User: Fold these one by one.
Assistant:
Number 1:
Amino acid sequence: MNINSPVPVGVLGGSGYVGQELLRLLAGHPGASVAFATAESAAGERRDGVGLVRIEDAPLARAEIVLSALPHGVSARYVQEARGLGKRAVDLSADFRLSPDAVYGLTEVTRPQVATADLVANPGCYPTAALLALLPLAREGLIDQSREVVIDAASGVTGAGRTLARDLLFGEVAEDFRAYAAGNEHRHLPELKATLAREGGFTGDLVFTPHLLPVKRGILETIHVPLTRAIDRATAEGIYETVYGNEPCVAVLHGALPSLKDVVYRNRVAIGVAAVANVRRPRLTVIAAIDNLVKGAAGQAIQNMNVMLGLPETAGLTC
Ligand SMILES: NC(=O)c1ccc[n+]([C@@H]2O[C@H](COP(=O)([O-])OP(=O)(O)OC[C@H]3O[C@@H](n4cnc5c(N)ncnc54)[C@H](OP(=O)(O)O)[C@@H]3O)[C@@H](O)[C@H]2O)c1
């Protein structure tokens, strides 16, 4: 890494929760510097020493790579504008996650493709944790595809972004706990299904129910996995250890289950398992925890950027 000439990075949407996290992480990155950061209503303000400019005024040419934390639907247009100027890009919105024009940037799974990509679609926060938990089991043929995999997930309120919304006010959220998007129609489901099929050969059904947890950041997913054959906890942990033993950003717990304190402010997914007693057909409970703003968004984007630029993969990150 050449610390004397850091790579200039452009940040789109630098005033949002994810954009602010990008700027926080980039401020401590030894091989990158912020060329510009944009905002809409917060244009003119500063974050981490960077003045936020309107997106129309963004000096795109100054950046070598652009990270976009714009809302989906808005992001694609500006990412394409940057690509038109020959810039590489990581898009953190959902706009390219199902597109053949982008590499899906689940770093631990698609690292070689990320390295040579011009456009990386950063995965969603819920999918990052669920996919890293499910893919090793799917690849071993351990998931019974005739039964549903059930994912019950709870996210802190920053997962909904910084836009004002009445049902996200402190008075509505504090000391409460509720499901939302019940009925298996959450927008992350197509991304989950497509990636499990492509990377894990799993084409069975998923039932995904998100919940709103009254904390700022962090996601905990309880994943109920129907198995083709019974395995005990040590065997399951061994499967994860084989896959992730050398991965700096995946923590496999042994004889313990993760909680949010294992992951907040860290670029990591923590995975723990429990064998399921008192059922007639074999099943495993997998618990996965992630910081939605770090490994679920800004941290993984920087991990992908590092891979794209040939920098050490965890530069600027605490895993
Ligand atoms: N929050 C998460 O945990 C999470 C996790 C993974 C992926 N993501 C994805 O990351 C992206 C950003 O999420 P977020 O939670 O940071 O959202 P956010 O807090 O609502 O921030 C959105 C950003 O985009 C800017 N913006 C909004 N509308 C714009 C427009 N029409 N033109 C130009 N700029 C505009 C906002 O500027 P102002 O605030 O200055 O108006 C802000 O900087 C989204 O696509 C989201 O789906 C979020």
Number 2:
Amino acid sequence: MQDRVSFLKELTEAFGPPGLEDDVAAIMRRRLDGFCEIDRDNIGSFIASKKGTADTPRLMVAGHMDEVGWMVTDIDANGFLRIRPLGGWWTHVMLGQRVKVRTRKGDFLGVIGSKPPHLLKPDERKAVQEWTAIFVDLGSAEGFDVEKETGVRRGDFVVPHAPFETMANPNLHVVKAWDNRVGCGLAADLLCELKGQDHPNAVFGVATVQEEIGLRGAGTAADKVKPDVAIAVDVGLALDTPGSTGQDRNPEKFGGGASILLLEGRAVAHPRLARFVMNVADDEKIPYHVTSIEGGSTDSARFQITGSGIASMAICVPSRYIHSHSSIIDQRDYQAALDLLVAVAKRLDTNALREIVG
Ligand SMILES: [Zn+2]
């Protein structure tokens, strides 16, 4: 089996904006084919399952495949592209960055245009760039017809271009799209870890679509799997950089372990499920933080209200600079989150489920 770092490199570098996640699903399938049953929902969410010694409880662990990106909404007479966001972007982090545009002729390198400081007026220096001023340069120049040469059309998808690199600290990897290929990686690696092992349940490793535009695949995937317990795996927000630390005594930080998210924008973690997971972490001496976020939600918020309700929560991996070209995680935290998921999968039997859902 492909080693973990090269699997995560392939996952994060894949092209997968909301609505066009097939490349990511193909990578998941290659990792899990042969020892898992593979299925999809009708809008593309990927579902791999492995039965242990019992058919129930049904435990679903899910990351979302989509990354924040853009769609081409117009092309001007000189071949410059206008784009609109798919997911949350702060235009500050976009200027001057490289992107990939997928057209009917292939993937093409583009650059998000920015003015050099020499040309900025004093008020422009202070302002955040408006969307109406943002454009992608796909190589426009005299004698090169961008539309003809690249085949670009309105409706084409665009994602950041930012190859995977390891930093001087060998535990830290920087690339686009840790949000949320880290969750896809964990859902797949959980099943890899359970290969050839007993567990008192059926485990579903799921990769959902369209989280960044409204937790959409979470509903369809959970409806298809009908789990008893659902855990969203996603990025957390590392608060260990200048200007980020809030009032918390133990803020989320690199090397601190998995993050157990108890409160998010649109949901609270199922309290008895969260208690069960924290007890497992304590018993197994797996490091973790307990966290909350004010804005934004994970797929867990949608799982909870799918069907007649699903006991749900989110386990996260602290991450720096998400929704930019250069997000970073610490692989020790990935390992802690994976260890926790494996321990939960080995312990979630019918008795545990009865205590959780009552
Ligand atoms: Zn996100």
Number 3:
Amino acid sequence: MTSRIIATGPDGYFVARDLESRARSPEPGGPSLTGDTRPNTLQITAATPSAPGVGAAPRFREYADPDERSWLRCRVLGFLDTTYFDDVWPTRPAPAPGLSLVAVSGDDVVAICDASLAEHGATIDTVVVHPDHRRTGLAGALLDELVRRLKARGITRLDAWTRDDPGTRAWYEASGFEVGYRYLHVYVTGVDEMADAVQAQVGLEPRSGFFHADTQDPGVEADLRRRFRRVHACHRFVRDL
Ligand SMILES: CC(C)(COP(=O)(O)OP(=O)(O)OC[C@H]1O[C@@H](n2cnc3c(N)ncnc32)[C@H](O)[C@@H]1OP(=O)(O)O)[C@@H](O)C(=O)NCCC(=O)NCCS
């Protein structure tokens, strides 16, 4: 599903056309979506009564400093059912030069899309949607706006590094990205695994560690997966703009 950004209002919010059509044609059993007649807003009523911002209208704009707490909550909740479940930030790090977009429902951030910029390309640092707001096109709408802004700056390539979570892979593939490279993230936990992975230095007993294994050899990968319980493939997804 690809959304198209159709307007940026004077207040800095922008709107996605395909979200409007979803809003007018809710899927049976899915969230109840109701289109708003105003030009730059969209009414969405989430299916889960406890969802943040229930009944409010998810809208799209740039991140602002007062969003920080809500942004962190959205990020951690969105990562909970993924291999990034323990990648928790108590504060939002100062971003690299780039673009930071959010979808907000009321005062709550419900989707995030951050990208950092280099001379000829950009990298998605974070894309995450609050679990109660998934499959309603929010990530697609934020990506469309990100791509529009990158193209306006003459950037021709967008990439992202992410692990092997099936839903995330499916979203990147549905969004026009292809896998360009792959390596392994190896988490080493417990005395036995650590003894297998590293040698202790004076006075230090290693208890856990995180390693990159830059291998394309299936035999090496199989051996690492046999020796260590938590191994993730990390993929570089690439899309020409
Ligand atoms: C990946 C993620 C951002 C997608 O957000 P989303 O707003 O739910 O995605 P969209 O509604 O834009 O999905 C667009 C299309 O992508 C595909 N897609 C998205 N999520 C999918 C899933 N879980 N399973 C299969 N396909 C999926 C579908 O083709 C979908 O279209 P459809 O709903 O019409 O079938 C969201 O699931 C998420 O936050 N995941 C956890 C965070 C994460 O791992 N981020 C990457 C590391 S930074």
Number 4:
Amino acid sequence: MIVDCHTHLWNGPKDFSDELRNELASVGYCDEIISVSPERHAAATSSVDCSIVFGLRAPLSGFFSVNDTVAEYVQTNPKRLIGFAALDPTESSVLEELDRVVDQLGLRGIKLTPIYSGYHPFDERVLPIYERAEELRLPILFHQGATFPRKAPLKFAMPHQLEDIALRHPDLKMIVAHLGHPWEAETIVLIRKQPNVFADISGLFGRPWQFYNSLRLAVEYGVVHKLLFGTDFPFFTFEDTVDGLRNIVDWSQKMEVPSLPIQLPDDIINQNTLQLLGLSE
Ligand SMILES: [Zn+2]
């Protein structure tokens, strides 16, 4: 079973500030990125058996997703779609929103973005979210790594900052998006020692040298079984991501560098993601 643990859906331009739209353009993302309709998401994810889908909520950086957008879409194909709620604990209504997305919208996990929202992952405003997520068995996918908007503080972006959460909430399932780029090594040592912390490989193939080194380090530390397949659609597609994985392994086999195992792409693409995250029914 192929699971894409990292895809986005938004509701067009109104989910983004003008400033963020300019910043997206300045790093090379065209307007197609922000106009991902349910139809486009469904077509682009037809090659996978299940997609986890969410928006982004971080007013500081200009993301204004509303969780109803994802919930309505998930209802169109609940067997193949799992919705996560985008939450921002700097908003005073966040705990009511958490209740609403679980009780009324049927969302099954949470997307948190400390760097985009501007809070430390152990900020007291976010701690009740971890408590409830552990209790309700909602996995949390963190953007815990670098990003481009100017106002998003790098000081809240380090993967090791999730360790205190893992120690306090040992049953909470957490995923570090994009292997915590560019601190992939930090993520790898974190997922090695914290049983319920995982990482996804989405969005990394475009920097092949770093991607090669990260995958090689994951092999050396023995954590490939904790790497989840993800695309970061609409930024990248399933086909791009699979090709990127296979190409880097082929390259390593041909060059005089420590090679990546031939079976590595299939191991990651077919990872038992729903079971690892406690989402298989
Ligand atoms: Zn993403």
